[in-house]
């Protein structure tokens, strides 16, 4: 069972309207999360007796004026407590013991948060993970394919991960360690899988019928729930050829209704978490002066009824 603690805190939101806290502050939350779908489609992961699901709460700090603190402006961003009262950045003064205690808790956590407030990259614009393909999801899978190829020393032709593994958007401007931790919080390992083209065709046909996941190295066209065409590396899938696939451990045996280990010729799971792999890539690219930037490229096309390719 994989259980992670979600960023933010609905308790803190209700008590004081203090925003951007606690995975931004020590990964503490009232919400327990496990991997599922994004947005309004809340996913769930179950063991024999327990289910954990992910929910997203919008935190409104407009009454307090609280902002997300950096490593060196906690007092300015969060306000202060004096004489049993909480003085918010907005100028409002709160006498409630619950509000004061909540503010004290968040402020006390700030020194320990300094490492996750480190700037690791720069993004010229907000990038989102949107269905059926997007700039952020394309960025993620292509970088993951590169990392898997580097670690395995094997050619990687295709990449498959799930949209539910990308939990937040890439922000515009400075990107912090915390942003990447919040984006990829699950403890999934990098995995190399070799599969016949016929099996990949079966996987992509299932996606065409039930919903696409994040893919790389391919161009897929679907219409009316059917796979119209599938290319890998610009060529039609060869059913008899063996392809190298980069994926994550969550998807090997049923995660998000994918069983990528089925009929595999080879499976190698590496003790490398997704977060660590992405941090290495972003840190290296930043050192080379590269921003965090990507785009759509038409790798997944869903045609309307009556529309031709």
Automatic annotation (TrEMBL):
Q: Which residues form the signal peptide?
A: 1-30
Q: Kindly list the GO molecular function terms attached to this UniProt entry.
A: hydrolase activity; nucleotide binding
Show the InterPro entries listed in the entry: 5'-Nucleotdase_C, 5'-Nucleotdase_C_sf, 5_nucleotidase/apyrase
Q: Which Pfam families match?
A: 5_nucleotid_C
**5'-Nucleotidase C-terminal domain sequence ranges:** 129-258
Q: Which UniProt keywords apply?
A: Hydrolase, Nucleotide-binding, Signal
GO term, biological process aspect, one: nucleotide catabolic process
Per its UniProt entry, which superkingdom is the organism in? Bacteria
Which family is this sequence assigned to? Answer: Belongs to the 5'-nucleotidase family.
* Protein name in UniProt: 5'-nucleotidase C-terminal domain-containing protein
| Organism encoding this protein | Candidatus Cryptobacteroides intestinigallinarum
